[in-house]
Amino acid sequence: MSETLNADPAELAKFSDLAHRWWDTESEFRPLHQINPLRLDWINAQAPLAGKRVLDVGCGGGILADSMARQGADVLGIDLATKALKVAQLHALEAQTPRVQYREISAEQLAAESPESFDVVTCMEMLEHVPDPGSVVRACATLVKPGGWVFFSTINRNAKAFLFAIVGAEYVLNLLPRGTHEYAKLIRPSELAGHCRSAGLDLCRTRGMEHNPITRRYWLSDDTSVNYLFSTQKPLAGA
């Protein structure tokens, strides 16, 4: 693997080891299956997906990419975890998902290859797993067309997020495998907003995502203290 590639080999290995469980809704990836309808509806409400060319950065096993394709988008999912991509490709074949493809390539590499090629770019639950999240944000901004949308979701960095997203989710409730998240890699909304501004993206909306561990219900709110989502837009040329 190139030393300049914006990826952590340990993170790639972590998700590759679990790849065969991506589509098991009762596995370690159950939270992703549970929050996916919320993410999908939030994206689709702001940037209707039907007929759009969409890129999902850090697609993993394809949960979001698959659902966006079923909304009528032409979707490309990219990731650097080989085994997870193979699972995504196999699921697309088995489920006969129309208009979804997968590639093993970084966002930065694809940005150099195909700038301004997508109407919508999504990068969900991925930025907290790379050494340089700002580089990924810049790549997403390069990849989207002028006037297009870029959506991010990640985890805040504060005491509450440490308690809920790491201690609670990974060690108490066992919602996620232990070691899924590193506190130092979590990203404050102000930091992500700075990355977006530096990349030339306009921040449009921010939402938080909350969870009740007793009812297992997730919902969107104004509370961005733990999990949160950004919607951003690339200005039209000359705007």
> Given the C-alpha coordinates, what overall shape results?
globular
Can you identify the CATH class?
A: Alpha Beta
| Tally of strands | 8
Bin the helical content: 25-40%
Binned strand content = 15-25%
The biggest beta sheet reads: 8 strands, mixed
In short:
This protein is an alpha/beta fold.
Tell me the layout of helices and strands.
Elements (H helix, E strand, L loop, with lengths): L8 H9 L12 H17 L6 E5 L5 H7 L4 E6 L2 H14 L4 E5 L2 H7 L4 E7 L8 H11 E12 L3 H14 L16 H10 L3 E11 L4 E5 L5 E7 L6
Parallel strand pairs: 1-2, 1-4, 2-3, 4-5
Antiparallel strand pairs: 5-8, 6-7, 6-8
EC number: 2.1.1.222, 2.1.1.64
InterPro entries: SAM-dependent_MTases_sf, UbiG_MeTrfase
Function: O-methyltransferase that catalyzes the 2 O-methylation steps in the ubiquinone biosynthetic pathway.
Task: Describe the structure using short key phrases.
alpha/beta, eight-stranded mixed β-sheet, 8 helices, single chain, 37% helix, 239 residues, Rossmann fold
Structure overview:
It is a single chain. The chain is α/β, with parallel strands linked by helices and 239 residues long. The chain has one domain (9-233): Rossmann fold, CATH 3.40.50.150. The protein is 37% helix and 24% strand. It has eight helices and eight strands. The protein has an eight-stranded mixed β-sheet with strand order 3-2-1-4-5-8-6-7. α2 packs parallel to α3.
